[in-house]
């Protein structure tokens, strides 16, 4: 590890003792996570465990207790524009105004670099263009968002986040509503960009095998608490998954040694035969 | 066509329409005056230009003392209402938001009526803009609060329904106040249905408010564009979403109040104009806001011209004309947004 602003050993993003209460109900309690520069951290957990809330808490979008540090410095004291240059966030279902063009949408990522009443500079336009090019979206630049397929939309949302040029990327379920092929394409793309730019990626992923395939480390949330954290091989363990997901699973190492999680169908109940008494 | 090319073409179209409607507004009326002569007379008034218009002195008087202030007032009121409409649409992310349908105009109408009826005299006149502003903000806040409690995420129609309820309620109070003071009725009645006959004096009264609100709304075009992806994402991009919405809301309400203070309640300008502008120029508020101002000016000057010629020598209230055009248009926009939502 080298070349990072805060020096070796300092996590790119770190959260300590995060707690969130929504409508009087505690949604997150005392969650701690940490990702090294260039690392991919996946947040997994059953529905309603607080995965999205955790991401939004790290992004500073909900009121929370605890502390979030980027490159070792607390983000709470930062002005919103400063913070947005450090942490980019893409929600699970982003609002995509159907008439807005791909270019205009991606260029929203420059917002943290433009003063309150200012307008884009040549540099802002340049950054937007180069990101679109990199994601093979340059042919789409003038196309309205309403005319895109699911996979294209996901790439455009990613483009907006990259245009933000933040070292930490928070992606909430980036593969939602995509078919298998497009899920793979999007995750491969994220991985390529992460390696090329040494981005630190934190995603929520509901697909445990995908999480195990792509992430360097996992945090398992259950009922608002982090119940396990570490490399995929340790977190994706049958007893943990059975306990917290209430599912029968089998975990096997894949070809590359990363764990694959299979659902196992429970044994069938005894068949009801025609001769059963009423 | 590129976005910039599209905006330039739209600007050209809107400017031409505005110019034509201004000249039509000056030419039409009880005495029909040649548009060409009016154009020449106007150019003649520019510095360093000297032209012979061929206008008779009495025609000069009609044009410059009666029609110019009237047409200007209509243009300013129309511009303010359309700009306020576009601004509210950005704030609420709702293409059906309109100063009239949101309760802003009715709120301003009520407070102005209260001031006219109970203060009267010079104190009343001086208090009109401030009262209108307070009423406009109060109306919108009430409609928004009502829409918010009535249906979380209830779609674009919920806010409008709440606005209609607020408008009816405030208008009912206003009617009650009027009936208390029947002797004032005629004065208020003509004002409520819309009237831009006030001239220079009214223009001067609202000028500072009109300028401030217009400038503030126009400056927020880019920020309204950022808001269009939702508050949460706007915040993640480093924007003070609440501050932006609040600022634009206040400025749009000030624009509404300035318009209502001199012209009464004129509906639908705030929906029709921004919608047409979007069809011409695209979605970005950076283009939609200024073009709405120009387009609103053209629309209301035309509406006023129709209002005072169609039943001449009698005058139709201008609000009748805008509603006649605007109500069917509103239904069309409603149908379109419903289709997008489902």
From TrEMBL, chain B:
InterPro entries: ABC_BtuC-like, ABC_transptr_permease_BtuC
Keyword Secreted on entry: no
UniProt-annotated location(s): Cell membrane
GO CC annotation terms, alphabetical: plasma membrane
GO molecular-function terms, A-Z: transmembrane transporter activity
Transmembrane segments: 71-88, 100-120, 126-146, 158-177, 248-277, 283-302, 314-334
Keyword flag Transferase: no
Recorded coiled-coil stretches: none
Highest taxon above the source species: Bacteria
SUPFAM superfamilies, per the entry: ABC transporter involved in vitamin B12 uptake, BtuC
Keywords attached to this entry: Cell membrane, Membrane, Transmembrane, Transmembrane helix, Transport
Membrane topology term: Multi-pass membrane protein
UniProt record similarity statement: Belongs to the binding-protein-dependent transport system permease family. FecCD subfamily.
Protein name: Iron ABC transporter permease
Organism: Microbispora triticiradicis
